[in-house]
Design brief:
Layout (H helix, E strand, L loop, with lengths): L15 H13 L4 H12 L3 H11 L2 E4 L4 H7 L12 H13 L2 E7 L23 H12 L8 E7 L4 H8 L9 E7 L3 H6 L20 E5 L3 H10 L5 E5 L16 E6 L6 H6 L2 H6 L9 E6 L4 H13 L3 E6 L8
Parallel strand pairs: 1-2, 2-3, 3-4, 4-5, 5-6, 6-7, 7-8, 8-9
Length: 335
């Protein structure tokens, strides 16, 4: 009997569809800036196929950083035939950047060098050498040069940074008219600092500095309710307002007439009665939270106190407001 020739070892092969699924899951996960930068570099250097697949994901939902602002902006103008012999990264990226981008995320990390990573004890130390003007620079170029026609969502993520910067950046920017969704997130460099951060120091604004009439969805995380209320006034035509782990919601009343849905998110954790009462949702609804009849409040969270939820549901119904519960078990959520 003739023996079969020995098998030669070969590298494992994955179909492109599976590679895309893996890369999409990794890129959508809540990575730190350092982790996202390492992922970007590693995935881009595997081979030409991985480069092409990954760029379609990374440029569809672009993060600045790990993409350097000047590098990203240089990709947006149409490249000419003179660039035909450029390296594969810039050639491929330039072709994709302006065509497929759906969301832009700006990460502003104000941690001083040597600060503790998120989740360790420590106080807030702000690194004021960080330049946040890149936000307005990118938004102005996208708007004035009519770039990124498919851009729909902009996210501002701050670590160890003040609340005023979001208003300042939006007020000096020409906000892209094609964008209909805006999310703003604040975090601290440690769990201890996050709990002790003086949110009460925020001062309400008598009137908005700027208006974004095309924004239809607004999501806020890590900021006091007063900040959320002021940002709602910046978006006079907003239809859905989403708050991640808010304290009180009665400060939002009354919402603009355009708002039909308020989403309160407390993912993963069981909702205790004290937390639900602290929202003062009953007071907000009684004070006219929704200007139009038929508003809806959606609670996305772990299991709530059923008896209190039913009582709140009945009270909301009296004011023509629908209260809905949606289970959300994911621990780490980004807006």
């Amino acid at each position: 009997m003739q023996s079969l020739p020995p098998l030669t070892p070969s590298a494992p092969w994955l179909p492109p569809e599976l590679i895309v699924t893996i890369l999409e899951d990794v890129w959508a996960s809540p990575l730190t800036t350092a982790e996202r930068t390492a992922t970007f570099r590693s995935a881009s250097l595997v081979n030409r196929m991985w480069l092409g697949l990954f760029l379609r994901i990374a440029l569809r939902h672009a993060y600045l950083p790990p993409l350097d602002v000047s590098t990203y902006l240089s990709l947006l103008p149409e490249r000419t035939n003179a660039d035909a012999h450029a390296n594969p990264f810039t050639t491929e990226a330039s072709f994709l950047a302006n065509k497929i981008c759906q969301s832009l995320t700006f990460d502003v990390d104000g941690r001083a060098p040597g600060d503790e990573p998120i989740g360790t004890p420590g106080e807030i130390k702000m690194n004021f050498e960080v330049d946040t003007s890149s936000i307005s620079t990118v938004l102005n170029m996208v708007s004035t040069l009519n770039h990124l026609p498919n851009l729909r969502h902009i996210s501002l993520r701050y670590t160890n940074w003040g609340y005023e910067d979001a208003f300042e950046q939006l007020s000096i920017s020409v906000f892209p008219p094609q964008v209909t969704s805006l999310s703003i997130e604040y975090d601290a460099c440690s769990a201890h600092a996050r709990e002790t951060y003086p949110k009460s120091f925020y001062t309400r604004r008598p009137q908005p500095w700027v208006t974004l009439p095309r924004v239809r969805r607004l999501a806020i995380a890590g900021a006091p309710t007063g900040f959320a209320a002021d940002m709602v006034q910046v978006c006079p035509e907003v239809e859905t307002v989403e708050l991640l782990r808010p304290t009180r919601v009665d400060e939002l009343a009354p919402l603009p007439p355009s708002v039909r849905t308020l989403v309160i998110r407390h993912p993963h954790f069981l909702l205790q009665s004290e937390q639900m009462l602290w929202w003062k949702l009953e007071d907000a609804v009684a004070d006219g939270l929704f200007a139009a009849r038929g508003g809806r409040v959606i609670i996305r969270a772990g299991t709530p106190d059923p008896h209190l939820f039913w009582d709140m549901q009945r009270l909301c119904r009296k004011h023509h407001v629908e209260l809905v519960y949606v289970r959300e078990d994911v621990a780490h959520v980004r807006l």
